[in-house]
TrEMBL record:
Keywords, ordered alphabetically: Amino-acid biosynthesis, Arginine biosynthesis, ATP-binding, Glutamine amidotransferase, Ligase, Nucleotide-binding, Pyrimidine biosynthesis
Taxon lineage: Bacteria, Pseudomonadati, Bacteroidota, Cytophagia, Cytophagales
Organism: Algivirga pacifica
Active site: residue positions: 254, 340, 342
Pfam families: CPSase_sm_chain, GATase
Protein name, as recorded: Carbamoyl phosphate synthase small chain
Annotated family: Belongs to the CarA family.
UniProt: L-glutamine binding residues: 48, 226, 228, 255, 258, 296, 298-299
Length: 365
């Protein structure tokens, strides 16, 4: 079957011509790249990627098909997909279908057969920007107009769009520990890591008032990962401040880390091109040990603000660029990390952080 032409246009006018994958159509969003060699399905269903176009830097994508149990949420969250070599055949025995079928069902527009190495080098140099993929039009002026109408990721509040609409429970109701989870874009594997440690979770929508969470009388609180700019999430920052006043254990991951920082008076900023992949080296300053981590974020917390703070301590740093990867509060039972310790996909070097949280809950019970 003859391949259909697709066009990728970046905000700065850079244009690539390739072939269409997924749904035929047009889609725009912020473009970013993920350096992970596996786990494409987990990446595409991570709510933190909501509204973004993902570039997979691995040469072959789709070669092991898809399996429903590897979804990290109830739907595909990305806005578009860019790959070098897209595989229409898959060889995994347990696969339930091809990636092409998976993308078509989800309505995801993609482009293949372009030089992703050249594209990634461009993003590294120029920084994160909006882009558009079109496989139903070759009119560059028309494509450019649609791209110019796409809002910037900076200043966007997206967590309320991906959060659960109704409260729900996860885990064993007879488990010894109870944690209230603020869902601002949570991944299923994070909940699995909590429940596997004897924690019964009640998951609350993003804009739930603190009093509603408190009524359940949990042993501690968890603030999840998620998409968008933490700088416009005052509603969640206020919730975190109220949780801190409860004097109960609090753990935050990714966006949850940024919200804990803002609740403690630390500012956040948009990064040049962010961290996304399974191979980011992070040093734990409290143990002196390093770990290889899974990451997905385009915003970070201010090192300068923390160094000028009397009550926030840096616990982890990124060994590539020295950005802050973890904090704890001196006077509270609260800590957070920028990277993803559930590591789905990714190495499991950081899963000890869930053990640390469970230990804090047990000591507080």
């Amino acid at each position: 079957m003859e391949k259909k032409t697709a066009i990728l246009m970046l905000e700065d006018g850079t244009t690539f011509h390739g072939t269409a994958v997924g749904k035929i159509g047009t889609s725009a969003g912020e473009i970013c790249f993920n350096t992970g060699m596996t786990g494409y399905q987990e990446i595409y269903t991570d709510p933190s990627y909501y509204g973004q176009i993902i570039v997979n830097t691995t040469s072959h994508i789709g070669n092991y098909g898809t399996v429903k149990t590897e979804d990290e949420s109830s739907e595909v969250q990305i806005r578009g997909l860019v790959v070098k070599n897209f595989s229409n055949v898959h060889s995994r025995v347990t696969s339930e279908g091809s990636l092409q079928e998976y993308l078509e069902r989800a309505g995801i527009v993609g482009i293949a057969d372009i030089d992703t190495r050249k594209l990634v080098r461009h993003i590294r140099q120029k920084g994160a920007m909006n882009a558009i993929i079109s496989s139903d039009s070759t009119d560059l002026e028309q494509i450019k107009e649609k791209l110019e109408a796409t809002p910037s990721m900076e200043g966007l509040e997206l967590s309320s769009l991906v959060s659960t609409k109704e409260r729900y429970f996860e885990g064993d109701p007879h488990a010894p520990l109870k944690v209230a989870v603020l869902d601002i874009g949570i991944k299923k594997s994070i909940l699995s890591n909590l429940t596997e440690r004897g924690i019964y979770c009640k998951v609350f929508p993003a804009k739930t008032p603190f009093e509603k969470m408190k009524q359940w009388n949990p042993d501690g609180y968890f603030i999840s990962n998620g998409p968008g700019d933490p700088g416009v999430m005052d509603y969640a920052v206020e919730t975190v401040k109220e949780i801190l006043n409860e004097e109960k254990p609090l753990f935050g991951i990714c966006l949850g880390h940024q919200l804990l920082a803002r609740a403690a008076g630390i500012s956040t900023y948009k990064m040049h091109h962010g961290h996304r992949g399974l191979n980011h080296p992070v040093k734990n300053l409290e143990t002196g040990l390093s770990e290889i981590t899974s990451q997905n974020h385009g915003f970070s917390v201010s090192r300068e603000d923390i160094e000028n703070s009397d009550h926030v301590v840096i616990t982890h740093v990124n060994l590539n660029d020295n950005t802050v990867e973890g904090i704890r509060l001196k006077d509270k039972q609260a800590f957070s990390v920028q990277h993803h310790p559930e590591a789905s996909p990714g190495p499991h070097d950081s899963r000890y952080l869930f053990d640390k949280f469970a230990e804090m809950l047990n000591n507080n019970a």
